[in-house]
């Protein structure tokens, strides 16, 4: 016990307000954690902002920061004391214009929660933020940060949520992020990040969402991502990833959404992916994927949306698609698919959008399609014409035209809008 505060103890014995004073005096002996120094750090930051927003008008020297808009305090245990400390800064959508580097993070060591998303913070993401060892949530998306993600961010060992999306951050994803093993959500989409996904990301075993879409990331995606067994959402679309889709992704058995579209992936659809039986969304469109659609795809019975268009997929449409009873959207267009449209697709009662155009699909629209109750748009132009072609004159005819798959056929051009069941009866 610091001797300098001993006289105060006696003075304050019966005076409750004095205890606060005592706490502050004591706190000053423990690495500057006094509420006063936290207040000073926040006020200094405010003074560096270009025209501080109205919400910050409560940030005044003569008031407790615990009473300021956007600030929350908690009483923390500190030795025998429970001083109030600043734990939350929450000012999203506030029009704050300035630099985060001006905030003295070493004076705010108790921060657990920072939400400053959708402001106008510019400049670098300061390495000094790494001193916030209690920080659990860091939402900084929708700002104008530039420069690199500091390597030191890997020191934020309590972090569970990190969002740096929608910024102008550049450079590589630091491997040190792999140290943040408490992370459940890692969102760094729509920035200017380049280079590979570090294989250390595979150490984030608590990750549920990994969203790195719309960047300029390259190389193969690391096999270690297969270790992220809690992952339910993996969004890597809109990058320049190449090489095969690692078959290790088939170990992500909790995955509900796998979005790898708009990249340069090549090679076949790994059969292991058909083990991901919780998948709702499977988007592999706009890649160089070749080979057939594996018939095992029928195991994905929760699948709601399947987007495989704009690839080099060959082979025919597997009749096993009939097992995808939840399927709502099926995009197979712009591939090299051959054969005919299996009648079984007519059993997919939930189908609303269906696109087959620009393939080498031969044959007709199977009669079974008349059963599709909820179909909204039916896009099949470019089916090859076969003998005795008959041009359908309207949606009604379209559904009645063919009796048997692959026997009669016709060219269907454009988009048919089948508004309601009335038009087909
Ligand atoms: C907090 O601020 C309000 C007005 O902004 C004031 O009425 C109240 O007394 C303040 N509370 C404390 C504990 O400072
Ligand atoms: C961002 O905040 C502004 C107000 O400052 C608001 O009008 C806008 O809708 C917000 N944008 C998003 C994407 O939340
Ligand atoms: C930041 O805060 C710490 C702790 O209160 C203090 O020691 C340091 O001098 C401050 N740094 C600046 C640049 O004000
Ligand atoms: C304050 O931070 C905690 C996490 O440390 C969080 O659960 C809580 O929602 C935050 N409160 C506000 C009002 O932002
Ligand atoms: C953090 O990650 C880097 C790179 O992966 C590693 O070299 C370093 O030892 C890690 N630090 C800690 C504290 O785990
Ligand atoms: C990604 O980029 C595309 C095209 O630039 C855009 O339409 C889409 O909204 C973006 N999505 C996300 C999640 O950033
Ligand atoms: C993670 O994945 C890699 C490659 O698949 C593997 O070699 C490694 O043993 C895995 N690590 C753990 C901790 O499971
Ligand atoms: C699918 O999962 C089963 C059970 O875990 C496993 O035995 C099989 O090898 C997996 N198949 C593929 C293609 O990865």
From TrEMBL:
Q: What is this protein called?
A: Leucine-rich repeat-containing N-terminal plant-type domain-containing protein
Which GO cellular component terms, listed alphabetically, does the Swiss-Prot or TrEMBL entry include? membrane
**Presence of the UniProt keyword Transmembrane helix in the record:** yes
Q: What is its main location?
A: membrane
Q: Which InterPro entries match?
A: Leu-rich_rpt (IPR001611), Leu-rich_rpt_typical-subtyp (IPR003591), LRR_dom_sf (IPR032675), LRR_N_plant-typ (IPR013210)
Give the signal peptide, or none: 1-27
Q: Where in the cell is it found?
A: Membrane
Give the organism, scientific name: Triticum aestivum
């Amino acid at each position: 016990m610091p001797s300098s505060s001993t006289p105060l103890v006696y003075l304050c014995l019966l005076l409750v307000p004095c205890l606060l004073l005592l706490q502050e005096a004591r706190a000053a002996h423990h690495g500057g954690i006094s509420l006063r120094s936290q207040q000073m750090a926040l006020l200094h930051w405010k003074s560096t902002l270009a025209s501080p927003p109205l919400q910050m008008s409560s940030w005044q020297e003569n008031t407790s920061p615990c009473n300021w808009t956007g600030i929350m305090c908690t009483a923390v245990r500190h030795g025998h004391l429970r001083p109030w400390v600043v734990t939350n800064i929450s000012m999203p959508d506030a029009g704050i214009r300035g630099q985060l580097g001006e905030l003295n993070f070493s004076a705010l060591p108790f921060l657990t929660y920072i939400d400053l998303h959708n402001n106008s913070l510019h400049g670098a993401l300061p390495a000094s933020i790494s001193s916030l060892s209690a920080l659990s949530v860091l939402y900084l998306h929708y700002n104008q940060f530039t420069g690199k993600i500091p390597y030191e961010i890997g020191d934020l060992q309590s972090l569970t949520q990190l969002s740096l999306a929608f910024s102008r951050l550049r450079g590589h994803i630091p491997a040190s992020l792999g140290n943040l093993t408490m992370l459940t959500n890692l969102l760094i989409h729509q920035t200017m990040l380049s280079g590979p996904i570090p294989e250390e990301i595979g150490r984030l075993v608590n990750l549920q969402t990994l969203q790195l879409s719309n960047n300029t990331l390259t190389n193969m995606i690391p096999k270690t991502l297969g270790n992220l067994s809690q992952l339910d959402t993996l969004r890597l679309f809109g990058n320049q990833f190449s090489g095969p889709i690692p078959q290790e992704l088939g170990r992500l058995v909790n995955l509900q959404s796998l979005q790898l579209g708009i990249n340069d992936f090549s090679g076949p659809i790994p059969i292991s992916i058909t083990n991901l039986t919780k998948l709702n969304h499977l988007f592999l469109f706009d890649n160089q994927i070749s080979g057939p659609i594996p018939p095992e795809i029928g195991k994905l019975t929760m699948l709601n949306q399947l987007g495989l268009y704009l690839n080099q997929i060959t082979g025919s449409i597997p009749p096993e698609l009939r097992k995808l009873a939840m399927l709502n959207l099926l995009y197979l267009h712009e591939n090299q698919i051959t054969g005919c449209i299996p009648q079984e697709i007519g059993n997919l009662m939930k189908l609303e959008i269906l696109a087959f155009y620009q393939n080498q699909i031969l044959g007709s629209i199977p009669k079974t399609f008349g059963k599709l109750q909820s179909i909204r748009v039916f896009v099949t132009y470019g089916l090859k014409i076969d003998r005795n072609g008959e041009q359908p004159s309207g949606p009604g005819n379209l559904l009645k035209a063919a009796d048997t798959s692959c026997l009669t056929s016709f060219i269907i051009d454009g988009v048919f809008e089948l508004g309601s069941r009335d038009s087909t009866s």
